[in-house]
Amino acid sequence: METLEEVELCFPQLLNMSCKRPKRSHFEIIMSYIILSSIIVLSTTLNLLVIITISHFKQLHTPTNLLLLSLAVSDFFVGLLMFFQIMLIDGCWYLGTFICMLYTCLGYIITSTSVGNMVLICADRYVAICHPLHYSTKVTQKRVQVCVSLCWICSIIFQILVLKDNFEQPGSAISCIGECVAVSNYIAELADLILSFIGPVIVIIVLYMRVFVVAVSQARAMRSHIVAVTLQGSVKVNVKKSEIKAARTLGVVVVVFLICLCPYYIVFLSAQDAIINASSSFVICMLYFNSCLNPIIYAFFYPWFRKCIKLIVTLEILRPDSCEANIL
How many CB atoms sit inside 10 A of residue 182's CB? Predict the structure, then answer.
């Protein structure tokens, strides 16, 4: 049997009231710090670049880019929340019950908002490709602003309801000092599973599949029309390349989204309680890592973004008339 001297406690002075610090190798701890720090730097830096770019340049103030801006804001805050995750590398929570509940609630809210933003982006692209003639009337700047605001408000209200037991009795589920625990009842977990995971995944897959089918059919129709009129060889190659590029982009978006979210919900919703501690750091890192990939997937593929980065790095963005620059 282990004695108190053989067990490393989070708070040695509290003896039996303190949580036990999990045993980890020095290599594992160092690697965890490196990985989490890298995610923080990438997520905050890349998303901050997107935020500055879309907010500053007036030519980018479009409904679609407003959705990208909202996504970048939520992903930026996800990166900031990773600072708290670094504190859990050694398996102990030192910031008290209130900060634990605040961190947990913000994590749920921001992640839910990020998922909602992705759904809105899918809907925007669906209308743009499947109903291009009605896009300018259906998707307006004001409507997008309303949708983005509702996305944030609904995420805040919903996640507060899911975690309301933690606010009514903060720390009631904590078995020892040095633990950060978030609990919710079965109904709340089921609602969160459906509204924050299953529902968005179904919507994204259905919309993207529809977009892909329409894009391929339009490309084939265009190929048939152009081939009948002009050079067959070169047009065929170009169209095939566009079809492959569309398939690859849509596939990456859906697969990356599922890969990052599935482990989180499988681990957390299969347990009786959703315990946020060092043992769950891997699935949380997977979830947060998606915030690093979003600006790459949704922004780095745009030529105007690379041009804006150059303007930011060279400090030309500080010029009084830089917001009027032609970057498209």
Answer: 21
- Cα–Cα dist 250/212, whole Å: 7
d(CA 26, CA 62) in angstroms, rounded, equals: 49
pLDDT digits (tens, 9 = 90+) for 61-106: 888 889 889 988 998 998 888 888 787 777 788 888 888 888 888 8
pLDDT digits (tens, 9 = 90+) for 161-178: 888 777 777 666 677 777
Core vs surface per residue 31-58: b (16+ CB within 10 A) or e: ebeebbeebbebbbebbbbbbbbbebbe
Residue 305 · residue 50 · CB < 8 Å = yes
Query: What global pTM score does this model have?
Result: 0.81
Strands (DSSP E) contained in the chain are 181-182, 274-275
Which residue do the tokens 């398939």 mark? 247
276 in helix, strand or coil? coil
Whole-number CA gyration radius for the chain: 23
Angle at CA of residue 54, ends 42 and 151, nearest 5°: 85
pLDDT, one tens digit per residue, over 278-291 is 445 677 777 778 88
Nearest to 212 by CA among 301, 125, 120, 119: 125
Phi/psi of residue 9, each to 5°? -100, 155
DSSP classification of residue 182: E
List of domains in the chain: 27-324 (1.20.1070.10)
CA distance 295 to 313: 17
Q: How confident is the model at residue 227 (pLDDT cuts 50, 70, 90)?
A: low
DSSP 88: T
228, pLDDT greater than 70 = no
Q: Rounded to whole angstroms, how far apart are CA atoms 260 and 200?
A: 14
